[in-house]
Request: fold
Amino acid sequence: MARAAMGAATVLLAACSTAQAPAPLPPADPPAVEGAAPVHKCDPANIQQFVGKTRSAALEQDMLKVSGASTVRWAPFGTAVTMEYRSDRLTVFLNANNRVDRISCS
Reply:
């Protein structure tokens, strides 16, 4: 009898609880705010010039300057990367010799 009463109480309490919806995700590209620092956006127009070059800190800085991206994601040979898209990022795939094999804004 005690078990039945506890089970009934549990069901009644569960029925009274309210589940909250998860908070909405922020937008992928936040809107520009007046007076705030500009949002970086990768421009793929001239980035193919870096294909074949060896990975280095200087190369990374050159790629950021030319592309307008705010960050570089290096993908060494044989490494898997996530497929989420970020408009402010440059993704650089390297070959087995640590040279740029392909590059894209992503």
User: Anything to note?
Assistant: Residues 44-105 form a domain with the Trypsin Inhibitor V; Chain A fold (CATH 3.30.10.10). Strands lie at 71-75, 89-94, 100-105. The helical segments are 2-16, 57-67. The chain is about 25% helix and 15% strand.
